[in-house]
Amino acid sequence: xxxxxxxxxxxxxxxxITVFEIESDTSNTDGVKAIAVxxxxxxxxxxxxxxxxxFAPPASDTSDASDASKDKDEKATPKDExxxxxxxxxxxxxxxxxxxxxxxxxxxxxxxxxxxxRIVHGGRYQKPTEISEDAMHRxxxxxxxxxxxxxxxxxxxxxxxxxxxxxxxxxxxxxVFHISIPQHISSYAIDQKTAYEKGLKRYxxxxxxxSFINRKVAExxxxxxxxxxRDDLNMLTMExxxxxxxxxxxxxxxxxxxxSGGVDPSLIFHYTSSxxxxxxxxxxxxxxxxxxxxxxxxxSGWKSITGTTNFGTITSKRHSSPPHALAWNIFVDRxxxxxxNYYVKLGGRPDALxxxxxxxxxxxxxxxxxxxxxxxxGFEVDERNESAGLGVVEWIGKxxxxxxxxxxxxxxxxxxxxxxxx
Length: 422
Ligand SMILES: Nc1ncnc2c1ncn2[C@@H]1O[C@H](COP(=O)(O)OP(=O)(O)O)[C@@H](O)[C@H]1O
Ligand SMILES: CC(=O)OP(=O)(O)O
Ligand SMILES: [Mg+2]
Description:
The protein has 422 residues and is of the alpha+beta class. It is 37% helix and 19% strand. Mg(2+) binds at residues 9, 407.
């Protein structure tokens, strides 16, 4: 029976996991085939929703004792699920729930040979690595640079050691994709000795997503693509990352559900009335730098302006509610600002503007508004293409593409390609 690869994507508000079978059919360029996909969304709210969908019955010889009394037919036909699960309160409990549901549906988790973990911040790591105790400590030390991501992802690795002891855990760092960014773009204009010693530079994230988009758009068109967008923006030249909107941490760049996006760095000292007069004692009392970092990461963004973290709600209420209109307009303004910036850096010759990830894929309204505002530099959406059924990569107008990105698939693909290495 083929081995299974589990790919876990710990996002800031979600946990997405796909189960892949290693593919023997060499015409499949991914090298793996999805057999089940699960998503736990709204993890930052009190009502996480869990879903599980099987693409193929999990051929299995499970001997899970707790399932022994179950009706054979019930095990043989896995049921798709979608439900609110109040017991899930973090990424780790979402993972445990997922494994439990896999077993209940008759999948033999002993077949899982590799688990791919998306780790957002890899610091100085230059390639994927097997999770050892040493690696866990190094990744843990980077947690303050990706407070919504690294810690939750590590809790999954720990759960794997306990619950899937026969499997090998491998980390895929978001930041690795961006090591090609030229030094003058990844550097901040600060003392360079301190910058080097403390690793203070722009890292960039969502690397597996960009890697997938890059691969699929090239497969689709046979061309090298050079202009990308998702819930952060990235610019590619010659298939490599050249610039990106996130920085030392994922806070920089576009605003998000609870994140402010880029602000004047001095804003943190002026956010509270007393913070503008900081001296040593006031700094201690305010727990600087933790307090502002928490405010900007967890209590800002759309949630702070509108009360919702859902961009779909902002979209639908933007014509009737001033706060929603403000959140929408800020977002559109920052997006087109980055597009203009990258357009110039590409010498006015981008191959395409690619919309991807949840907002880029699902929000036709956002695509229409953004593209209308950048029509002056040669982009256009064709309404007829917008209403057509979307494949993984589709043209939706002049120089505009939508790509259904899949970070889990990209990690599993890279794992399958280098299996002999692991
Ligand atoms: N129909 C939709 N239209 C626009 N945005 C959406 C829609 N559905 C979900 N979203 C946005 O996608 C975000 C979730 O993105 P996702 O990649 O699943 O999670 P994470 O925040 O963990 O990266 C939510 O914050 C929500 O604002
Ligand atoms: C880096 C980052 O913000 O990731 P996500 O959008 O998945 O939370
Ligand atoms: Mg995400």
